[in-house]
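Researcher: Structure for this, please.
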Amino acid sequence: MSKKYLLGIDNGGTVSKAALFDFSGRQILKKSVQIPMLTPAPGFTQRRMEDIRDKNFELIKSITDACDGEIAAVGFSGHGKGLYVLGEGGEFIHDGIGSTDTRALSYELMWKSDGTSQRIYPKTAQKIMACQPAALLRWMKDNEREVYDKIRCVLSVKDFIRWTLCGECFAEYTDASGINLMDLRTLRFDEELFDIFGIPEMLSRMPEVRSSSEVCGYVSAEAARATGLREGTPVSGGMFDIDACAAAMGNLTPGDMCVIAGTWAINEYVSERICDDHTVSMNSVFCDPRYYLAEESSAASCGNLEWFRNSAGLGGTYAELDALAESVDPAQHNVIYLPFLYASNENPLAKATFVGLDGHHTKADIVRAVYEGVAFSHKTHINALLRSRSDVPGRFRLAGGVVNSAVWTQIFCDVIGIPAEIISGDELGAKGAAMSAGVAIGAYGDYEDAAKKCVSVSSLVMPDAERHAVYEEKYKKYRAVADALDGVWAKL
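Model: Predicted structure, token format:
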């Protein structure tokens, strides 16, 4: 009897990753591929639909070529928001727009100032973001009407790639519920919301919505030839990458909190209710449809360190950077870094900045400031999340690029002030996608069953009480700087 595996594919903003797992969650293979990002104008981040399809097929083929058994099912996860549209017959009529795109920022600001944000909140329980389809479709209607009129299907990135494999257009609840066009209580695309955003034509262009663990198609003969997958292989609905990571971290019980410090700062917990008191930025349907996911997030996370490593000449491995950071006493270090290179959880116009640098500071001080600034950015999100709760979790689960650094992981733990569980495995988005595929074909009874079989904690990191006290005072300084500069950004 041949070995059987589950294939999970995670599509981020520029990199797509695929990983093969056995039914016990053991990672067998992993591959990745870069997809070229196009920036035709300031604030635009987009990729050719052909590139996304072809690179994903290439990625899958690299897995199937090395696989020593049968791939029983496939699941996808991907970045949320953004916009991926198809024309009549499935033709590509526009590049895929990523979640870091800000071309529609003026609409976000307009809708926040004119009361639209407050008007929609009772239905969506979400803040308006420039990268959501609601804003991007309106921008397209006003600026690229010839494309807008050709749209016949609106998808997320992972739904688009699933379509390339199966030829069937479906949306999926974890993604569809996070785009400000769905009533979270009825779980339907809402006519009034489309009218409010000035895009009523798009209601009929939204596909049928399926759950993350439903089979949403089967690999076509054409896709089988291109990817090496068996024709007829079932493909699950998959999920938004924040749900996939939560599932792969075993964060499935109401109240469980996880922090994913990667390109984005993702901070979230599972809830039995919609947190509709304006304390959190985003509510959406969880991959377990009994629950919701309360989320605070921004692109103010580990991408900052990568920029400094690649563009500002910091260089070095994590071990080398850790040695630099560890050489600086946090109690004596007063450089504040606002990690807003790509986005902000303070102000959509905010930019990255250092405050407190002078001539005696060294590369080590810069590294320490970046480590701490990213952790403080997450703390701002976490504080917002906790305002909606009556309890503080006894521990949280931590994943993302930050766990590659022992020093940074400890800083996160010291800043947040509660123990951190580190989850085994590195491709959590792909693993969560594979778990959805396993539930879809009955390999697991549900996500809790999948987590019991597939998820394990590799280590527990305890906060240092003295360091926590230092960081509580330092966080006040971080907040003072962020608040003082809040009125400056619009003038730059």
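Researcher: Any notable elements?
Model: The longest strand covers residues 70-78. The mean pLDDT is 95.
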